[in-house]
Amino acid sequence: MAIATINPATGETEREFTADDAATVDHKIGEAQAAFEVLHDTTFAQRAAWMRAAAELVEQEAEATARILVREMGKPLAQARGEVLKCAKNMRFYADHAEGIMADEPLDDPTSVGASRAYASYQPLGVVLAVMPWNYPLWQVVRFAAPALMAGNTGVLKHASNVPQAALYLDTIFERGGFPVGSFRTLLIGAREVKAVIEDPRVQAVTLTGSEPAGRSVASIAGGQVKKSVMELGGSDPFIVLPSADLEAAATTAVKARVQNNGQSCIAAKRFLVHTDVYDAFATLFADKMAALVVGDPMDETTDVGPVATESGRTELAELVDDAVAKGAKVLVGGAPLDGPGWFYPPTVLSELTDDMRIVMEETFGPVASLYRIADRDEAIRIANQTTFGLSSAVWTNDPDEQEFFIRELAAGAVFVNGMTVSYPELPFGGIKDSGFGRELAAEGLREFTNVKTIWRA
């Protein structure tokens, strides 16, 4: 794939970039390694000062940066601004809390192991490769980079080929905040070059956010090198609505949960499992609210849903819908690509789904919702857990017993009760099953790329 900015709202190529050759990649990894030799000996206070300075730059430049995101992957401008500012918030969180999270953890009774003192110490690993997707061009990267740098690691980034301007912005932001030259470097390379970077002895670990096939490939290469990896892959998150729920609030939140980022989010709600007692009322509310969304130019402040980011992505989305319709699914709203320039697909709701439809098991990456009628909570769990994914989930009920049941039984990395899945710096983020392994954010994300070293003193 060419490394280029192709505006998904028009289909036009706006800028093309020359890929880094092998010598350039080698030089950038060398810069990151040299920066690590400096960075890991600095104090948390110094790193925090640099991180806060970088966060301030992100905030100052938010409007221009947001417009880059819109042009490269098509998210509505207001959401792009939100993404940029969320990055700054994450950077400040780790600037404030990294030292405490990384503090040595002493054994309460060291004499039990024959020592005068025994403790666990968290120490950085070195250069970490980040392989990142286009759907949140800044956030996906910063949620790794901020904790990694605060831990004393350095990073090299292989970003998606359709967001090169976002990638190059990230190449400079930490250095402009004061971090040593080379602390975070963007590699303008294609997928085929990733293997060689993982195998480079200077690279100590890898993190990937992306598709399941990409995750399997990268994890297998890292495993072959016995290098640590963290995988955040796809999701087909259930959104369960039960009779005691506030239906108006549930339907309003369901729309936002499905179409955020033009429906292109791993943690977007995709399967809506509604109890038969409230199914008809919810279906009407949900379909009406989806139909009322404004689809159009993502630079327009009044737009709710912009284009799908790539032409191939829209084609894949349409194929899933067409397959379901051909096998008997009912289209409540939408259901076909929009005519005209750009890669627009309307908010769509499908019902009467059967297990032979691809959409039942595969991830829909776009504003398409699958609506299921369920008889009881046991059927909800069966359908919710039947896919190979297990990223996040949401359940709407005001019954305490039902809440505890779903918290216990949902096979996912997170359960949100009477709300929608959102990632927060303060909470760990990640999935199970084919949605990946390892965690980002919170204390767990900071410690993922550290050596947990045991210290024993006589």
TrEMBL record:
InterPro entries: Ald_DH/histidinol_DH, Ald_DH_C, Ald_DH_CS_CYS, Ald_DH_N, Aldehyde_DH_dom, ALDH_GabD1-like, GABD/Sad-like
Protein family: Belongs to the aldehyde dehydrogenase family.
Organism the protein comes from: Lysinimonas soli
Domain Aldehyde dehydrogenase residue range list: 3-455
Keyword flag NADP: yes
Protein name per its UniProtKB record: NADP-dependent succinic semialdehyde dehydrogenase
Alphabetical list of Pfam families matching this protein: Aldedh
Key words of the record: NADP, Oxidoreductase
